[in-house]
Structures are given as structure tokens and as C-alpha cells.
Design brief:
alpha/beta, Aspartate Aminotransferase, domain 2, Aspartate Aminotransferase, domain 1, 2 domains, seven-stranded mixed sheet, four-stranded antiparallel sheet, 15 strands, about 15% strand, globular, disordered N terminus, cytoplasm, SHMT-like_dom
């Protein structure tokens, strides 16, 4: 009888140095492998992006910019950052790219520092309507230090009303206007926002953190011809590491660079810069273009299947990667539904819906997206099964039927085993 060979640790150096933490990493790998991840802001990065994130570039301090650093020994680092910035400019069609921001919120804060003084007015989408904290919402530093004015969506359509935006802009005269958000299921009318910004003399910023990958892949219109500044994270639909970028017209390059460094942060995270470069290189391929269009097709298919089962979709559907679902008619709060779905291996987040009467920490809706399942190659033909699982779990949660939730968990795990995730060392 042949003795079985014990499995080798996936991360041998980590396992030897810190087995407790290594075990947690392995558990997270397994969790990502056998659950259906439907959070719109989550994705799977490639093995190449993972490798770049863990290189010896981690060892470097590089305050400043290529050719003008405050540390010596930057011969290679300068090339890494220059290459990544060149790829960003080419992919998004902008004059200038700063690839140093640590994440999306600091990137947006750098925009404020570049263009505003404390107390100046900024116009952004209201957080409960789908906007982001950093677009001037009161609990954020941006709403504390600046005069935040918010626009929303129409009750009857769930869509932005540009006439309302224009009226607010003319009345409030903001110096900065944000378009984009975190729970916006429809295309953003960059040209319409640009007309308003020109009329009031405001700087227009497109926050494309959620849709950057769709824009790169041609599945969403580009803001490049219309806006002054583009702010984006580098993960989500772009499938890069957790980082951010600022892109702009050439006349704003110096102000933005000075706002990022030395205005808000010190040395960049060079390993992240390299991983962003890898992701941008991947996003410039025909395969990524196909991926971006499949993300949208899957979201629309899933939305149609949910609507057929009586789910109320904010704005009636989606043009991009996400769906915002109002569960009021299903007689279950969003938080309760999200937790039940998690027990079934279907990972979503509870989310406020426009004009939500419930509190933000216990809202009426859930937010669902298709970037991660599309990265795994799950086809549109499986969206009926996904919608059926969601419906079964929510019905079971209302009835306290944990057996059904457990049965769905087993079915989800079986489906996920047939679509291995890129970058995950889990069979």
C-alpha cells in the first residue's frame, strides 16, 4: 500500500514563519473559490497581478516622481512608474496619469486639494441615491471641509435628472462637480454633465471606480472627451490590485501631482504600481474587451431573470455591471437577505435604495454585480440558476427555513467547482 503524500503548503515561507496567518489565508482562498461572489466592487486578479503585488519592489521608498525623487537607487522604479503611467494614458485616452494614489478615497481627496479651498462648494451624487462618501457627503471629510450639495435620481425612473443637476449647479455655483457613484446601474451621461460644468465654470470629475474596466473594454462610453479629471480605483471591473489613479487634461497635471505628493501622501507603493501596470496591459487586450462586454451581458441577463421572479430593480434594470434590488415588495430587509445569501454561499452587500425609508445600516435593498463570476467564465446561461437561488434563499429566510439555505449552499459550491477562479491556487 502506497502512503499518501501530504499536500504542500500553498505559501511555504508564510506557513513556516506564521502558520496561524497562513491558515487564515488558505481559508480565504477556499472561501473565494467555492462561493458565488456577486459584490460589484469585487473581482479576481490574475496570477500575474498577484505576483507583481508580492515582488521585491515592496522594499523601496520612492518619494517624488520619476526623474525627481528624494531617494537614490530609483533607476528601476522610475521605469516601472513611467511604464504604468504610459499604459494608463493610452488605455483611457487622457493627457496625464498619476498612478500613485493609495486608494480611491485619497485620490478623490487629492482632487479637492488640487482645485478647492476649504468651504468651497462641490456638487456630487447623494450617497443614499448611489453616490460616494467622498463626493461631498456630510460624514466624510469632503462634506466637513467643503460645502457639499447633492443631486439624486427621479422617483419614477431611478435615473439622474440632468435638469435637476443643472438647476442645482446654477443655484449653488459649485467649483467642482462629480459624476459617477457606487450604486449607479445606468450609463453616465458625461457629455450632459460637461455642458453643465462649462455653464457654471466648474471642474468636472468623472469617478469611474466601478466602471473603469467596462470603459477600458469598450462596454461603457468613455469620459475622456468631456471631463477635466478622471478618478478611478484599479480593482473592481479593471481587475487590478487595490490602488487608484488620477487622469487629467495636461493643464491640470501639475496641480494634481502636487496634491498627491507632497499634499496627501509620501512614497508610493511600488509593488502596487507594478501590479497596476500588469492589469492595464491585460486590459488592453481583445480578451479583456470580450470580458467587459460579457460582464454587462451577464448583468442584464441576471436582471431579467430576477425581474421575472418579481424582484424590483431600481431604474428597471442595468446598463453596466451592477443591479440595485429593492426588496420592499419581498417583505425582507436588505441586511437580513444579504446575511441569508451569505450563508448560502452567495455574497452580496445590503444597500440603501433611492428614497429608502430604512436606516443605512439596515436598508431596503441589496447590490449585486457580475464582474467576479464573469472572470470565472460563468456564462449567461447560468444566470437563471443564480436568480433562482437568490429567490429560493430569500423565500427561505423569510420562513426561517435553514435547510433550504443549506441545500442552495451545496448547489453553489458544485457550480463554482466547474469554473475555477483566475489567480486562486485552489483546485
Amino acid at each position: 500500500m502506497t502512503a499518501s503524500v501530504p499536500a504542500q503548503p500553498r505559501h511555504p515561507a508564510l506557513a513556516a514563519a506564521d502558520p496561524e496567518l497562513a491558515a487564515l489565508v488558505a481559508a480565504e482562498e477556499q472561501l473565494q473559490a467555492d462561493t458565488l461572489r456577486l459584490i460589484p466592487s469585487e473581482n479576481y486578479v490574475s496570477a500575474a497581478v498577484l505576483e507583481a503585488s508580492g515582488t521585491v519592489l515592496q522594499n523601496k521608498y520612492s518619494e517624488g516622481y520619476p526623474g525627481k525623487r528624494y531617494y537614490e537607487g530609483q533607476q528601476v522604479i522610475d521605469q516601472v512608474e513611467t511604464l504604468t503611467a504610459e499604459r494608463a494614458r493610452a488605455l483611457f485616452g487622457m493627457d496625464h496619469a498619476n498612478v500613485q494614489p493609495y486608494s480611491g478615497s485619497p485620490a478623490n481627496l487629492a482632487v479637492y486639494l488640487a482645485f478647492l479651498k476649504p468651504g468651497d462648494t462641490v456638487l456630487g451624487m447623494s450617497l443614499p441615491m448611489g453616490g460616494h462618501l467622498t463626493h461631498g457627503w456630510g460624514v466624510s471629510a469632503t462634506g466637513t471641509w467643503f460645502n457639499g450639495v447633492q443631486y439624486g435620481v427621479r422617483r419614477d425612473t431611478g435615473r439622474v435628472d440632468l435638469d435637476e443637476v443643472r438647476d442645482l449647479a446654477l443655484a449653488e455655483r459649485p467649483k467642482l462637480i462629480f459624476c459617477g457613484g457606487t450604486a449607479v446601474p445606468r450609463e453616465i451621461d458625461f457629455a450632459g454633465f460637461a455642458e453643465i460644468a462649462r455653464e457654471v465654470g466648474a471642474v468636472l470629475v468623472a469617478d469611474i471606480a466601478h466602471i473603469a474596466g467596462l470603459i477600458a473594454g469598450g462596454a461603457h462610453p468613455s469620459p475622456a472627451p468631456y471631463v477635466d479629471v478622471v478618478s478611478t480605483t484599479t480593482h473592481k471591473t479593471l481587475r487590478g490590485p487595490r490602488g487608484a489613479m488620477l487622469l487629467s487634461r495636461v493643464e491640470h497635471a501639475r496641480a494634481l501631482d502636487r496634491a498627491v505628493f507632497p499634499g496627501l501622501q509620501g512614497g508610493p507603493h511600488n509593488q502596487t504600481t507594478a501590479a497596476i501596470g500588469v492589469a492595464l496591459n491585460e486590459a488592453a487586450t481583445p480578451a479583456f474587451c470580450s470580458y467587459a462586454h460579457r460582464v454587462v451581458a451577464n448583468a442584464r441577463a441576471l436582471g431579467g431573470e430576477l425581474a421575472a421572479r418579481g424582484f424590483d430593480l431600481v431604474s428597471g434594470g442595468t446598463d453596466n455591471h451592477l443591479l440595485l434590488v429593492d426588496l420592499t415588495s419581498k417583505d425582507i430587509p436588505g441586511k437580513t437577505a444579504a446575511k441569508a445569501l451569505d450563508r448560502a454561499g452567495i455574497v452580496v452587500n445590503y444597500n440603501a435604495v433611492p428614497y429608502d425609508p430604512r436606516k443605512p445600516f439596515d436598508p431596503s435593498g441589496i447590490r449585486i454585480g457580475t464582474p467576479a463570476l464573469t472572470s470565472r467564465g460563468v456564462p449567461g446561461s447560468e444566470m437563471a440558476a443564480v436568480a433562482e437561488w437568490i429567490d429560493r434563499v430569500i423565500t427561505a429566510a423569510r420562513a426561517g427555513d435553514e435547510a433550504t439555505i443549506g441545500a442552495v449552499r451545496a448547489e453553489v459550491k458544485e457550480l463554482m467547482a466547474g469554473y475555477p477562479a483566475p489567480g486562486l491556487p485552489v483546485a
